[in-house]
Specification:
Elements (H helix, E strand, L loop, with lengths): L8 E5 L3 H12 L3 E5 L15 E2 L7 H20 L6 E2 L3 E3 L9 H10 L5 E3 L4 H4 L13 E4 L3 E3 L1 H14 L3 E3 L5 E6 L2 E7 L4 E3 L2 E4 L5 H7 L10 E7 L9 E3 L4 E4 L5 E4 L1 H4 L3 E2 L5 E2 L2 H14 L8 E8 L9 E4 L6 E5 L7 H14 L12 H11 L1
Parallel strand pairs: 1-2, 1-13, 2-9, 5-15, 13-22
Antiparallel strand pairs: 3-8, 4-8, 5-7, 6-7, 10-11, 11-12, 14-17, 14-20, 15-16, 16-17, 18-19, 21-22
Helix pairs in contact: 1-5, 1-9, 2-9
The chain binds flavin-adenine dinucleotide.
Length: 382
């Protein structure tokens, strides 16, 4: 039986996958939850994510374990929503450039060694396991197919979770403007919003995506930040047999629930500039090249037309690994900040909710505490 923590008032800041998932898990445990977000739900990274659910290639042991457990939670959700168009487990296919940077054989050996389901395939064999891909685009070193990977449409899921939250009695406050954590007597006591709303709380979780490091800094804590600006381009729906997520040298892409694709790439991030008014300058040539690279890896090289594109920060901690847990020395103040927040969205909410209401530290999060950054700064200073 799950005990109830109804006496605890917890306020979560952030309407992305981390905030919403955490709020729902807190409400499931019986906490009295208020979810506050500055705008609409999924207005930031969670609304423009490739959302490939994976633990492919090279990771620390602890980070790989967390990601694999994260995928397990998505699989459970998929089995409860059989046939859902917004959550699919139809594998991922990866290949590298045909040059000295190609590490496909090494990645395959590593994935096999750690028991991550993977197959190394010659280009001509790819169609036997997954359809819709242009075999001629695959490099001669071959491609890795990971049958256990998937993708999720985060805005749809966030909408479902918000409905569950309200049905469990959670309070939802959107369009509040910027919120900040109130700290009195050395502990977090609630949240104040730019629109004048104030919420009292016993604990506050800051899940504000790219804004987490700056908010932690206001509370005197260092969280190293490696957040880049990223671009996600969506095509118009077209006839395609594609099922898998593709990770290729010049483009990563996946199908969408409405029969289109979304795509991104590392090179396109380097072509984005922040304008003086805070908006991002996206060159039409960047968008066109992304669609053209996507067409190149798809069977029949379909003509892809632009439906929309979205650009903005992609939350990434400075050392690349998740930052989840309490801010030391400020009782009641918790943060959740990570790269790969789609893969980790459900498990992060589950683990942090349990920690907040029970006070019991999860061993799964031991490597991912915010305090590692201040320890690093202290070590450098000494
Ligand atoms: C292009 C792209 C591709 C990606 N690909 C993948 C992938 O393939 N696999 C994967 O696992 N992950 C991927 N990610 C990462 C993943 O999408 C993010 O890690 C995840 O969405 C972050 O969720 P979040 O809730 O932490 O942040 P966000 O979704 O950014 O949400 C933060 C929320 O906090 C609100 N907020 C901010 N400041 C305040 C404030 N002061 N007061 C009130 N509200 C505030 C924002 O408005 C927003 O609602 C990708 C991301 C991008 C952008």
């Amino acid at each position: 039986m799950t005990p109830s923590y109804a006496h605890q008032r917890v306020t979560v800041i952030g309407g992305g996958i981390f905030g919403v998932s955490s709020a729902v898990h807190l409400a499931r445990l019986g906490a009295h939850v208020t979810l506050v977000t500055e705008g609409a739900f999924a207005s930031e990274a969670s609304g423009r994510s490739l959302a490939w659910l994976n633990s492919a290639r090279f990771r620390s042991e602890e980070y790989h374990r967390l990601r694999v457990i994260g995928i397990d939670r998505w699989r459970t959700l998929a089995s409860r929503n059989e046939g859902a168009a917004w959550l699919r487990f139809e594998g991922g296919l990866t290949w590298d450039a045909d040059d000295a940077s190609n590490r496909i054989a090494e990645a395959f050996a590593h994935e096999q060694a750690i028991g991550y389901d993977s197959m190394l395939l010659a280009a001509g064999d790819v169609a036997k396991v997954t359809p819709g891909i242009n075999a001629a685009a695959i490099s001669r070193q071959g491609a890795i197919f990971n049958p256990g990977e998937g993708w999720v449409d985060l805005p749809t899921l966030i909408d479902i979770l918000v409905r569950e939250l309200t049905s469990l009695g959670g309070q939802v406050l959107t369009q509040t403007g910027k919120a900040s954590v109130d700290i009195k007597g050395g502990r977090a006591t609630g949240v104040s919003c730019a629109n004048g709303t104030r919420v009292e709380a016993d604990a506050v979780l800051v899940a504000t995506g790219a804004a987490v490091p700056a908010m932690a800094q206001q509370a005197g804590h260092v969280i190293a930040d490696g957040t880049p600006v990223a671009l996600l381009v969506k095509s118009k729906p077209f006839k395609s047999a594609l099922r898998a997520v593709l990770n290729t040298p010049n483009v990563a892409l996946r199908p969408t629930p409405d029969g289109a694709i979304v795509c991104d790439s590392a090179w396109s991030e380097e072509e984005l500039n922040r304008g003086s008014n805070g908006s991002y300058d996206v060159r039409p040539a960047t968008v066109e090249r992304l669609l053209s690279e996507a067409s190149n890896v798809l069977e029949g090289n379909p003509k892809l037309e632009l439906e929309s594109y979205h650009c903005g920060p992609k939350p990434v901690p400075g050392d690349g690994e998740s930052v989840i847990g309490p801010l030391d020395g400020i009782p009641g103040y918790f943060v959740a900040f990570s790269h790969s927040g789609a893969t980790l969205g459900l498990i992060t909410g589950e683990l942090i909710a349990h920690e907040i209401v029970t006070g019991e530290a999860s061993p799964l999060l031991a490597k991912f505490r915010p305090a590692r950054f201040s320890r690093h700064v202290e070590a450098l200073a000494s």
